[in-house]
Design goal:
Layout (H helix, E strand, L loop, with lengths): L5 H11 L5 E2 H8 L3 H13 L3 E6 L2 E6 L2
Antiparallel strand pairs: 1-3, 2-3
Helix pairs in contact: 1-3, 2-3
Length: 66
Amino acid sequence: MTKKGLDKVILKYVGDQAPRPVSTREISEKLKIAWHTADRYCLKLQLQKKFSCFTIGKSTAWFIVK
């Protein structure tokens, strides 16, 4: 998978799981990418105000901002 369209793929995957928040680990396993890559792209989407998150222990759960 190329990095160019990865943000769109992550956005689509999390949107398909709505209204259930999705953890960074779930994203990385489902899309077969490194955890760190998934985390960085989710943070970029958060800066663009497309995602928001909350933490549960050591896990971060992501959801789409409406």
